[in-house]
Each structure stands twice: as C-alpha cells, then as structure tokens.
Specification:
Layout: H1 11-90, H2 93-104
Length: 122
Amino acid sequence: MPKNIVQLNNQYIQDENQRRRYLEEERRKKNRFMGWVLILVILLFILPTYNLVQTYQTLLERRQQLTQLQEKYDQLSKAKNDEKDLAEKLKNDDYAAKYARAKYFYSKEGEYIYNIPDLLPQ
C-alpha cells in the first residue's frame, strides 16, 4: 500500500517558504559580514605582530652590539692604563735609560748588546 504524499501549495506554504529563504539569505549575509570582520581583525593583528618581531630582533642586535662595545671599551681602558703607567715610569730617568737600552738597543760606548727575548722591562 503505497502512500502518496501531496504537498499543499497554498498561500501559507508559499509565504513560509519565502520567509525561510529570506532568513537563510539574511544568515548568509551575516556570516559573510562576520567573515570579513574576522579577516580584518586578523590583518589588524598581523601588522603589529610583524612590527613587534622586527623590533625584538633589532633589540637583540643592539644588545649584542652593546656587549661588543663594552668589551672593546674594557680593552681600550686597559691599554690606556698600561700606557699611562708606562708614561709615569718613563719620568724616572733610570727607568727611561733602561727601557731605551732594552727596546731600542742603545748602548754606551764600549758596551755589547745581546738580545734576550721578553727581557723588556715592564
């Protein structure tokens, strides 16, 4: 016993179908709008994130550069102090004569100079 199902096609059914299509179209428009808003929000977060990462990399480079400059400063300070100490020592005539004789091989008349490595006075 097959049953035949017949759909009524009266004004109420047509109005309900039209209302359902209208609601479905409104939902699609709302979903499309929310999709565009989501894309816009993502784009708005990408640019600051990119800038933040770039700034962080620059900060790391500057920290590394600061460390190198501090090391160079320490080396130059040590060299300056060594030169200052040498200048103070060279004010002593005996030390200056000994230094000149050791470094530049100056000698008094009748003296022989023998070069011994690492014998230069400090």
